[in-house]
Amino acid sequence: MANAPAWAAELRQTATANLDRLPVLTGEEEDWRFTPPSDLGLAGVAPADGTAVAVDLAATAGPRAATLAFTDGTPSVPHGADLPAGVIVAELGQALIDHEDLVRSRLYSLIGFDDRPGALNAATWEAGTFIYIPRGVTLALPTETLLSATGARGRVSARTLIIVEAGAKATIIDRYRSGNLADPVAVSTATEIIVAEGGELEHLSLIEWGAGVRHHARITASAGKDARVRSVVVTLGGDVVRVEATHIAAGSGSDSRALGLFFADDHQHFEHRVVARHEAPQSYSNLLYKGALKDQSHTVFFGNLVVPPGAPGTDAYQTNRNLVLNEGARADTIPFLEIETAEVKCSHAGAVGRVDDEHLFYLRSRGIPEETAKRLIVIGFLQEVLAHVELEEVRRDLEHAVARKLA
Amino acid sequence: MDAPILQIKSLEVAVDGRTILKGVDLEVPQGEIHALMGPNGSGKSTLAYALAGHPRYEITGGSVIFDGQDLLDMAIDERAKAGFFLAMQYPVEVPGVSVLNFLRTSLIALHGEELSPREFMKLFQEKSKLLEFDASFTDRYLNEGFSGGEKKRHEILQMAMIEPRFAVLDETDSGLDVDALKVVSNGVNSLRGPNFGALIITHYTRILQHITPDVVHVMFEGKVVRTGGPELADELEAGGYAQYGSPEPAVAPSA
Description:
The structure holds two protein chains of two kinds. By secondary structure, chain A is α/β, with parallel strands linked by helices. Chain A has one domain (6-354). Chain A is 19% helix and 41% strand. Chain A has helices spanning 6-21, 92-98, 100-103, 116-124, 357-364, 370-386, 392-406; strands at residues 66-71, 79-80, 88-91, 127-133, 143-149, 155-164, 169-178, 185-195, 200-208, 213-223, 228-235, 240-249, 255-264, 269-278, 284-293, 298-307, 315-324, 330-339, 345-354. In chain A, the strands form two sheets. In chain A, strands 2-1-5-7-9-11-13-15-17-19 form a ten-stranded mixed beta sheet, with helices on one face. In chain A, strands 3-4-6-8-10-12-14-16-18 form a nine-stranded mixed beta sheet. In chain A, helix 5 (357-364) crosses helix 6 (370-386) and helix 6 (370-386) packs antiparallel against helix 7 (392-406). The longest helix of chain A has 17 residues, at 370-386. Chain A is globular. The mean pLDDT of chain A is 94. Chain B has a six-stranded mixed beta sheet, with helices on both faces. Chain B has helices at 44-52, 76-81, 99-111, 117-130, 148-162, 178-191, 231-239, and strands at 4-15, 18-29, 33-37, 57-66, 69-70, 84-87, 94-98, 141-142, 166-170, 197-202, 215-220, 223-228. In chain B, strand 11 and strand 12 (223-228) form a beta hairpin. Chain B has a domain at 4-90 and 165-244: Rossmann fold (3-Layer(aba) Sandwich). The radius of gyration of chain B is 18 Å and the shape is globular. Chain B starts with a strand and ends in a 16-residue tail after the last helix. By secondary structure, chain B is of the alpha/beta class. The A-B interface holds A 356-359, 361-370, 372-373, 376-377, 379-384 and B 52-56, 75-77, 79-81, 85-86, 88, 91-92, 94-97, 101-102, 105-106, 109-110, 141-142, 158, 162.
């Protein structure tokens, strides 16, 4: 951001002023009572810079239209093959200069800086991705951005802006990864996604941090008229992770699916706050988050379907199911509805359960040892979400990652 | 083959603190197929689950020797490895676990890694054909969306693939139409021989018209009260369970 244009520098100054002005989050706030903001590096000062631990980058498999990699927030040059005409995959800081016409009106439009975490990200982001798919263009291969942390920097802030224009189509992967760090790192990410009329986007957030990382992630996706947005959030790594995923049905006929899969072990703490906000009539949303927990881990799911006045014909569902594998692990699920329009179809469900003894008995009665049987049952439980991950190599990686957690 | 494959002595079993089996004695020599008949609530299914090691069934007395080993001392999966198989009356649905993945995992657990994927598929196709099991079910999740008859067929398919030394069939005939009953019976008969024994648990006589038992046992109020030849089934068919104080007939209502 060293050479940011004046307009961007001004916005950053405002965000910085907000950060100084806004009260520090204490954890007493209703929205923050499950995950202490200080654990995410959102309260006071960030963790100090520490010793670098190398990141294993090996598993970024599969053909990609373009890739970007940021280590500790340091921008890198995108690698792209021959992108279709007009498609932009760029470093966001550079895009402020090169693509002001596309970026300026949309950056901070979905995730602003009038609350403390928002201001923190806007005031501190150094690296980021800008992806632009022009009208009617289909990007056949996915793009992938890797944000990694080594521990050398105590705070890592990054920002992503994705614009899918009318009738365009793309698959975009955001991967987060580190080794097991000796020194704690606080990561803040903000991802704004705008899908215009009839556009289609599949967006994957793969959170695969090692130990020592605390991550506050905001992802807000807006679906225009008849647009289709599918987001998959997979949370497997990090000490403390809070994901706030918001799906806005901005246009009628839009179709938003929010899929989530998480598996917490050891002392991991994950919170997912997933909101579908129906601002236009006749729109559809479906949230499905499934989680498994073991050891001393704790997960929280807060889901909310918001239907303000003036959105009749809303068709909205949310489900969260959790499988607790042992005593000592704890899952909280809070499904919520805020409906102010008549003539809507909405349902919500949350459940916390254990491995079913009957399932275990059935598999074991066929000679399958207990641990293998449990593994099959847990992967089976998560399969409902995994089956929706269309990229085969990503799905395989995830199955392996889940299996490793069960080993 | 002189020693019985299954030797149950004075077995007592309680469920949720209530005693159901009150001293069951029963022996099946290897290579024989026995029928265990009795009215509802006599304890037939309790015996089946207790033998398989279901945690809800508490053994409060007696012993079970299986192929010379103490069956009650074995973990659930060890019993399967020892050659014991239970075809369940109500197989559960296990979401997200595909039929093929389940069967392959089971066979590898029982027979080791030497089964190649190709051999596995060949075996699967051969046995599916025998049991007229719809091949399109293979990608389905375990028992999910299966009809009652399909679940039973799937149980016997597993048995045919695993080739256990001994199987208990817990009311496999219930809910099957005549055609399905024939198919399932063929599956059982295909295993019949000196290395396969079975205990067929049934309320009704009709499955015994397709699988002729060597011996018939009658269970009532938690005990085996009578043991005889196949003619005992005919007697029950004619008189029902009246002589044991139960008004229930032994002829299936639809048969």
